[in-house]
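Session log. Operator J.P. requested a structure for one protein chain; no other inputs attached. Running the standard single-chain path with token output.
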Amino acid sequence: MSASPRNIPLTARLVFSAWMVFWVAVVMTHHGPQNFFWLCNLAQFIILYAIWRGNRLLLSSQAGLVCLVGLVWTLDLVVALILGGHSLTGFTAYMYSDELPLIARAVSLYHVFLPPFLLWLVWRRGYDGRGVWLQCVIGAAGVIGGWLWTEPWRNVNWVHEFFGTEQVWMPDPLWVALLVIAYPLLIFLPGHFLVRWCLSKAP
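Structure written below.
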């Protein structure tokens, strides 16, 4: 881990900002603004703000989510590629669907490059352990917002279906409340420990 906080180079800020302009344009064209409620998509906006402000708490808050989900997403993509497009988890099944334009699928590859970029950012700025608790709040807002303000067929943050299975076991408000609890336990906290482990191995 970096011994003392260092500034984020202007080049890194400009390159990521240019990426965001391109990514937002593609998503708006092919998916619409509701797609931004996905937690990983929200993370990119938070990271964009944080790198210009140099805010290590915000950067740290997104690190666990981005790194853990990015790792699972990338592994699933590689396995699906080996198996001829058959995703094991369903996370990357859309990447092999001809119903989506190639460019709309290609921009999802940020799940591959964003984790190492964000790890580098928190290595430079320093990792703030409070970030995981902030992410619990941000994640809850994203899940509830996705439930209230996105169309059910989008299944943003899995508020209507889970691994392709429609949620019929309990009332929707109870299911959303369960997700608000499950995300920290299954993603945010494990991601926090993954990031700390990665940083401990940094030179």
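Operator note: Residues 28 and 35 are 8 Å apart (CA to CA).
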